[in-house]
Amino acid sequence: MFANRRFAFLLFLLAGLTAAGIFRDSPLAHDAGGDEAPPAAPTLDQLASGRLPVVDLGWPLNDTSPYWPAENYLPFRLTTIATLEKNGVLSKAFYCPEHLGTHLDAPNHFEKNQPAVDQIDPAQLFARGVKIDVTMQADADADYRLTRADIDEWEKSHGRIPDGVVVLLETGWSRHWNNYPRYKNQDTTGKLHFPGYSAEAAKFLVVERKAKGLGIDTLSIDHGPSKDFVVHHIVNGAGRYGLENLARLDKLPAKGFFLVAAPIKIETGSGGPARVFAIVPGPAGRN
Amino acid sequence: MFANRRFAFLLFLLAGLTAAGIFRDSPLAHDAGGDEAPPAAPTLDQLASGRLPVVDLGWPLNDTSPYWPAENYLPFRLTTIATLEKNGVLSKAFYCPEHLGTHLDAPNHFEKNQPAVDQIDPAQLFARGVKIDVTMQADADADYRLTRADIDEWEKSHGRIPDGVVVLLETGWSRHWNNYPRYKNQDTTGKLHFPGYSAEAAKFLVVERKAKGLGIDTLSIDHGPSKDFVVHHIVNGAGRYGLENLARLDKLPAKGFFLVAAPIKIETGSGGPARVFAIVPGPAGRN
After folding, report:
1. Which class in CATH covers the domain with range A47-72+99-285?
2. Do the chains contact at A70 and B61, CB–CB below 8 Å?
3. How much is the average pLDDT of A87-97?
């Protein structure tokens, strides 16, 4: 009787401590791949008070910023309206194609009856993020496309891609950002060469993993040589968005981060320059 | 001895349940002014999975969008580069003054040696928010300026404004948004008339409450008749930003919400169109 009571007492002690989260941050609480797992439940209050690292995934806009190289596209242009010296205030105006620099492709970019950039539900602009790194493959083949096998490989290492994330594809292409000819990599026939998603991979991520959006560190989620823009059609046809010309994907872990994608709110716009921030709790964010 | 053991047992049960957060959402856990208190620690995961209401505080940009009415300023202009019918893709380009529509004033707008819009530390763009409502005062006086007494009154009702928030001033002016002449409210001498912050209030919020930024639902954080833009100088001089032409401030509670301010990343820009989102946990967000 005495021994029984003592046993129950110890059981309660253990239950209480577990419920209180005493063991939450111990190695016991993590699975085998726990090196990239974020601490439990990072809060908005931690974010608002500067206690979570924020990585800016955008490039600054200037007159050398890469843009989609097609007819009627012109570079970003900034003009000064007023200066501190002459007018007591600094103020400028700018011209910009929607699909220039770090930007969002709205669902109406390639598909009818899909929302314009100003009509995207704000809830879609906040998401968990995962990153798939194909830098090595893209180094060997500039036209490389993410395969289903690459995704399987990722899931084997990091677990199932959760529903409703934004997927970011790191190709290493951002090292060419400051050299537009190298970045678009146009051959003598006019064909572009840079990596992207395959149709199969995009369909899997959008349909089977319900991705809110697909992002990349190149000019397009379709690889350079594409003429049918099949990946754009898959993504936009499902009402999802693309994020292109992303910066600093090398600063992100494979998983365990959060994304904010904030495109300029152009009425009827097919997309536009966007601020994209990654919030990276845990050790990975502290670099 | 038996009674003592029983007592200790019950104590442990209570401690365990309390630590486990069983009582966290009970009325016992809230203080007297709990009607506006958010649920404990809303998380990024809740935000990313659509479980927290997001209020879009921005207006869509079009050719009737209000802008600062001064020399060299032109309206927003959208041109179509390609269409689905002709080109298989919808794509546009736009012209925009930096200080048009819902936008952010960077610290370099009115002050030398302060960061441009692309140089603002991303950590400054995430903040807790408070809203001060002077709709009644502004109804009686279009040139009304928020006073120190208004802030004292707010703090008496809602508690001390925490350090590092973004303060939003609701004046009711957004009801004139779709009528630019009424919104800027220019008299026959050219003077503008709409409400704003007083220098005293701005200084208090920036210095004593370390506000990251000041926002408003009018063309300017300075009230319409201002010629010295003293509030801009106070805010920008302290390295802080302004948020102007905000929408839907009437949807926000006085406190207990979070803000994301995401301005277009123009290199050397004095500001620019911004997406501004409020995340409103708790009952206030469910309207």
Report:
1. alpha beta
2. no
3. 98
Average pLDDT over residues A97-110: 98
What ranges in chain A are assigned the alpha helix state H? 2-19, 44-48, 84-87, 135-140, 148-158, 180-184, 199-203, 230-237
**CA–CA distance, B70 with B172 (Å, rounded to integer):** 24
Torsion sign, CA atoms B61, B108, B263, B104: negative
Question: Pick from B45, B260, B273: which is nearest to A260 by CB?
Answer: B260
Chain segment B175-232, per-residue pLDDT in tens: 999 999 999 999 999 999 999 999 999 999 999 999 999 999 999 999 999 999 999 9
Determine which helix (DSSP H) or strand (DSSP E) holds A55, and give its type and residue range. strand A54-56
Q: The tokens 């007819």 sit on which residue?
A: A71
What pLDDT does residue B283 have? 63
Nearest to B13 among A12, A68, A271 (CB): A12
User: Do the interacting molecules here have an ipTM over 0.90?
Assistant: no
Token representation of residue A18? 């577990």
Looking at residue A43, the DSSP 8-state letter turns out to be B
CB within 8 Å: B91 and A102:
no
CATH of domain B54-285: 3.50.30.50
DSSP-derived 3-state class of residue B194: coil
Put simply, whether B64 touches A (Cβ < 8 Å) is: no
Q: What does the angle CA A160 – CA A166 – CA A169 come to, to the nearest 5 degrees?
A: 85
Helices (DSSP H) in chain B: which residue ranges? Answer: 2-19, 44-48, 84-87, 135-140, 148-158, 180-184, 199-203, 230-237
Nearest neighbour of B20 by CB, restricted to A19, A50, A267: A19
Query: Are the beta carbons of A264 and B61 separated by less than 8 Å?
Result: yes
Instruction: Tell whether pTM > 0.90.
Output: no
Q: In chain A, what residues touch B16 (CB-CB under 8 Å)?
A: 12-13, 15-17, 19-20
DSSP β-bridge partners for residue B77: B95
For A113, which residue in chain B has the nearest alpha carbon? B84
Q: Is any Cβ of chain A less than 8 angstroms from the Cβ of B113?
A: no
Model confidence at B40: pLDDT above 80: no
Q: What is the pLDDT of residue A23?
A: 37
Secondary structure (DSSP) of A190-241: S-B---EE-HHHHHIIIIIS--SEEEESSS-SB-TT-SS-HHHHHHHHTT-E
What kind and span of H or E run contains B103? Answer: strand B103-105
Contact B23, B30 (CB under 8 A): no
B60 DSSP assignment: P
Are B77 and A80 in contact, with CB atoms under 8 Å apart?
no
What confidence category does residue B31 fall into, taking pLDDT thresholds of 50, 70 and 90? very low
Chain A interface includes B62 (CB < 8 A): yes
* Mean pLDDT estimate for chain B: 89
pLDDT, averaged across chain A: 89
**Mean pLDDT value across residues B266-276:** 98
Whole-angstrom Cα distance, residue A168 to residue A153?
16
